[in-house]
Amino acid sequence: MSLEKHTMTTSLLNKPFFSFFLHILFLLLHIINSSSFFALAEHTSSTTSPFGNNNTEAEALLQWKASLDNQSQSILSSWVGNSPCINWIGITCDNSGSVTNLNLAGFGLRGTLYDFNFSAFRNLFVLDFHNNSLSGTIPHEIGKLTSLFVISLAENNLNGLIPFSVGNLTSLSKLYLWGNKLSGSIPQEIRLLDSLNQLDLSNNILTGEIPYSFENLTNLSLLYLNQNQLSSSIPQEIGLLESLNQLDLSRNVLTGKILNSIGKLKKLSFLDLSRNQLFGPIPSSIGNLTSLSKLYIWNNKLSGSIPQEIGLLESLNQLDLSNNILTGRIPYSIEKLRKLSFLGLSTNQLSGPIPFSIGNMTMLTVMFPFNSSPMPPILTHCQTRQRLKDPPFINIPIIHIIKAKPFWVF
Fold first, then answer.
1. Nearest residue to 297 (alpha-carbon basis) of 317, 278, 316
2. How far is Cα 198 from Cα 187, in angstroms, rounded to an integer?
3. Of the ranges 222-231, 242-251, 319-328, 363-372, which one carries the lowest mean pLDDT score?
4. Would the pLDDT of 402 be above 60?
5. Which H or E element spans position 91?
6. Distances in Å between the alpha carbon of 13 and those of 1, 5, 9, 16?
7. Which of 39, 263, 264, 344 could form a disulfide with 288 if both were Cys (CB 3.0 to 4.6 A apart)?
């Protein structure tokens, strides 16, 4: 029986088709083994390389450098070779040799971000291009920098929209895009940046509304949207940002009333709502902001009386309510603002006497219009008593006192 099997096997091996089949089988096994070997070798090489993503990052940096103008390339003359962690200006790396910080603030670089390969920098922690002359739009690919903690593209010549891909930067703590020519609306995707601590989009050409979705940014301590063309009302949800320390919405086209919810921002030390078109009364809840040092609501259309609760802001150093339609008397509670060095109440419709106790505010600097009548005796304790032909500018630390019938008012 075994002889018969042996004879059959020998017969099969001698057949051309079966011999060809075995040859193909052995060849496939060889290819599979070889592929596994090279894959293992490649994996071992990538994990043991002392330079990590160094070569890819170096190529990306050199590619971007080549896209800049000649002067900028000269500034980055140290960017040569393939080791950005060794003496490349503005570059910081981690222990694995991967770029973590790219700090080129104030270098005077001219060019765009179009040739910047964002996907090459998986471990980038800080990107600071503040105060250069970069132009063009912010590429959508910026959303690939998912490890970013800080990004500053402030004070450049960037234009166009803020890309909605910024919503991918969920590790971001600080986002500075101020001082550009960015336009369009603020993307709703910013609501996804729930780790954000500081957001500055000021001094651009942004339009539309302040997103209601900002209510998600509960870690925000600084929000600057000033000097844009935002035209909505101030959303009530902004009162949910209870970590806010500084809020600047000035120099927009904001309308509507100052809502009571503003009084929930008890950590605020700086609040500027000036140069808008806000109307209605100053809410009494303003008295809850006991940490306020500076309160600017001048140049709006606010009406009604100054709330007595203003006297609760005992930390207040500067208060400007000028250029509104405020009526009634200066509240006597204002005497409690002993730290006040600047008080602006001019160009309103206030009437009645100046509270006698205001003369005890020895930190105030007082100036009078040139053609005013003699100074009221109660103000003789104030630091400076001068006469001016014209009303002072807002950036001069003074009080502008005007004469209203039949009494002295600010």
1. 278
2. 16
3. 363-372
4. no
5. strand 91-93
6. 19, 12, 6, 8
7. 263
